[in-house]
Amino acid sequence: MSNELFRFTVLGSATPYPSADNPCSGYLVSYGDTRIWVDAGSGTLGPLQRHVRLDALDAIWISHLHADHSADLLTAYYGLLYADIRLPAPIPLYGPVGIADRLAGFLTNTATRSPIESAFAVTELHDGHQARVGSLRLTSRAVVHGVPAFAVRIEAAGRSLVYSGDTAPCQALTELAEGCDVLLCEAESDQVSAEGERVHHTPEDAGGTAAAARAGQLVVTHVGRSLTPEHAVARASTRFDGPVGYAAPGGIYSIGEITTASVR
Fold first, then answer.
1. Fewest CB atoms within 10 Å of the CB: 1, 25, 68, 174?
2. What is the C-alpha separation between 59 and 121, in angstroms, rounded?
3. pLDDT tens, position by position, 210-259
């Protein structure tokens, strides 16, 4: 049945700020009646509501606290507590250590701390963290991005999706992605941190990680603004022999059925 498809919907894939037709990083992962908002980058809350109401989400998972992956948690907070939604219980929120205090720092405007925990039931991630959300199983690994950051493997019905978040190539991501059906991996241009450390995958790196992990398919996302999706796919394909696609905004992709037709 169609409602049993294990799939992800691209809410946005732009970096480091939204374009006119593409929000920042955000995905809706679903299987059966379970729906998880994975990364809440700037602009993703709007398209999320084409598919699910905020109060119908089973969980939110955040890779790291850079704004292009988390900023829409701020407006989601107002929606959950102060608008037309009657939230029966706080939404489970998985994210890096300190995520609740970071949100409170932005949202508190008086001497009284904003009630973050009334909107979100926060669980802080650690390397190797595991959780079951409805019919989905999540395993998170710490990755290399210059700030606390995580990748996630999401499994259902014997199939698997791995999302890199933002990270330089690292053994933890390769191990997490081992044998996955789909690797959804960032493909930035070359960037380094203020300390001179690499903090992103290039398209070639994305292809290399997919090959090393023996992934079934690679979907590049978070494509740097100096690149076109077509160029990112072509460059990733030099290192990975399997199907390579692009996470086009608005695309809905069934795990195990993604092809290069998703490039545009």
1. 1
2. 9
3. 999 999 999 999 999 999 999 999 999 999 999 999 999 999 999 977 54
Q: Is the pLDDT of residue 193 over 90?
A: no
Distance CA 52, CA 132 (A): 20
**pLDDT class for 4, splitting at 50, 70, 90?**
confident
Q: What is the mean pLDDT of residues 101-123?
A: 95
End-to-end CA distance of the chain: 28
- 3-state DSSP call for residue 10? strand
74's tokens:
């701020």
The pTM score is 0.94
CA distance 69 to 253: 20
How many CA atoms does the CB half-sphere of 45 hold within 13 Å?
15
DSSP 173-222: HHHHTTT-SEEEEE-PPP-B-TTS-B-S--HHHHHHHHHHHT-SEEEEES
Query: How far apart are alpha carbons 251 and 234 in whole angstroms?
Result: 19
- Check: CB of residue 77 under 8 Å from CB of residue 56: no
Find the mean pLDDT for residues 24-38. Answer: 97
Side by side, which strands form the sheet with 91-95?
120-124, 91-95, 59-61, 34-40, 26-31, 7-12, 252-254
Q: Where are the alpha helices (DSSP H) in the chain?
A: 45-48, 67-70, 72-82, 99-107, 116-119, 171-176, 203-213, 229-237
- The whole-angstrom distance between residue 235's C-alpha and the CA centroid of its chain comes to 22
Split at pLDDT 50, 70, 90, the class of 97 is very high
